[in-house]
Each structure stands twice: as C-alpha cells, then as structure tokens.
Amino acid sequence: MKASPRLWPHFGRSNEYGADVAAYARWREQAGWRRQARLFGVPIVNRDFKDSMEYAGNVYGKAGLVLEMLREQMGDAAFFSRAAALPRNESAENGGYADLERALEDTTHQHLDVFFKQWIYGGGAPQFAVTSSYDAEPRS
Fold this sequence. Notes:
The protein has helices at 13-17, 19-34, 56-74, 76-83, 97-108, 113-119. By secondary structure, it is mainly α.
C-alpha cells in the first residue's frame, strides 16, 4: 500500500490508497477538527470574519468531511456525476455551495435543503452520549 504524504480526506483517496487509509484519514481530520472548539459554532459558509484563515478549519477540514458524508449518503455515481458537471462560467470562478446543492438536487431529485442548512449554513457538531452495559449471564 502506498504511503500518503498527508492523510487528508478528499475524493479519490480510497481509490488511490485503499479504503482503510481513506477511513483513517477521515478519522484523523475529524479528530483534529473536534479539538478546535472555537470552530464548533461557526458555519462553513460564514461572512463574519476578519482574517480569511480565521476559520480555515471549517472551510477546509469540516467542509471536506461534510462533503464526504454527503457523498456517502448519495452514493459515488450520483455524487460524482453531478459534482463533475457543476456550472462554470467563462470567468473561471469557483462554484458555490448553492450551485452544488442545485446540481445534486437536479440529478437525484432529492431535497437537500435541510442537509445544507444543517451542515453547510449552520454551525455546531453532532453530540453523542454513549453508554454500554454487559450481561455476564450466558445466552442459550
């Protein structure tokens, strides 16, 4: 297996280095993001900043994870068929999240407004409370 120069989740990592490396890269990225509590309440799309790198952890790290999550929910075929065909104008500007949302909705006929509102335009992170118990009595 090839060694990645930097384990960062991006589309195609699983094809290039294998599923285990891709999963580990996603785990490392989310673990790193979760250590930056100041980013939790800040949405990925945010216009309230002084320095363009102030929220880079959300713009790049969290955004990559959210797009990976969307890709997982939609499936590779639906995600990549539309993401590759995003509208581009002659000025070579980057497409925005609204463009991606419209393109994916057109392809899949799914309403993604709730997903984008929660994950792209809203701040926060999932909070889990996990408990476990063990029943030592053998089952028959």
